[in-house]
Design brief:
Blueprint: E1 4-8, H1 13-16, H2 30-44, E2 54-57, H3 61-74, E3 81-82, H4 99-106, H5 108-116, E4 165-169, H6 171-180, H7 186-192
Parallel strand pairs: 1-4, 2-3, 2-4
Helix pairs in contact: 2-3, 4-5, 6-7
Length: about 200
């Protein structure tokens, strides 16, 4: 069984503003690009051989740009496979709101459940099919089977991880990746719930 390498995207514009992002397709900041370069350098000198790796990436541009920067630093011309399963959870009515203000209104415990629970979705936001700014009306979600799914679900690997896999995506989905991966112990799965989701 080969290693599974998870890379969270660099800082985005809404990360910098401490806003819930979810499916909104925002760009990286300059700091986020520097974080991606640092990740690429760390992997380059890790001693691992990435020449035959399979690379998966979220279709959101903050993840795709991070992935491109990392691969450039590794000197690889691999073609990442876009996978909509690796997008962040949809934050519904919290989308775009300041996290600090949401915590003040609902409490830390409730917000943590919305961000990290598989069973409790953030407050729903009615869909207006004529609203061009709603990410649910934009690619890649418009015609996606994800529909209105708002929680991060455990990601099940159809095949065992035999080769080396690199996944560039969102913090919240890594909980699901770890939950579904045979490569991660039960103890580590429990730890992962406390360490990934950044929104």
């Amino acid at each position: 069984m080969g290693p599974l390498i998870l890379i969270r995207h660099g800082q985005s514009l809404w990360n910098a503003e401490n806003r819930f992002t979810g499916w909104v397709n925002v760009d990286l900041t300059d700091k986020g690009r520097e974080e991606a370069r640092k990740a690429g350098s760390i992997l380059r000198y890790s001693g691992l051989d990435f020449a035959h790796s399979e690379v998966f990436v979220s279709p959101l541009k903050r993840a795709k740009e991070t992935c491109a920067i990392v691969l450039e630093h590794l000197g690889l011309s691999l073609e990442p496979r876009e996978d909509i399963n690796f997008v962040e959870r949809y934050y519904g009515d919290l989308t775009g709101r300041c996290k600090e203000e949401v915590v003040k209104g609902y409490g830390t415990a409730q917000v943590q459940r919305w961000r990290r629970s598989y069973r409790e979705a953030p407050p729903k936001l009615p869909l207006n099919p004529d609203d061009p700014d709603d990410p649910r009306n934009q690619p890649p979600f418009r015609d996606s089977p994800l529909g209105n799914i708002q929680t991060s679900l455990p990601y099940t690997f159809i095949n065992p991880i035999e080769d080396q896999w690199v996944i560039d995506g969102m913090g919240g989905i890594f909980e699901g990746v770890c939950e579904g991966s045979q490569a991660v112990s039960e103890e580590r799965k429990k730890e992962s719930v406390h360490g990934f989701s950044k929104g």
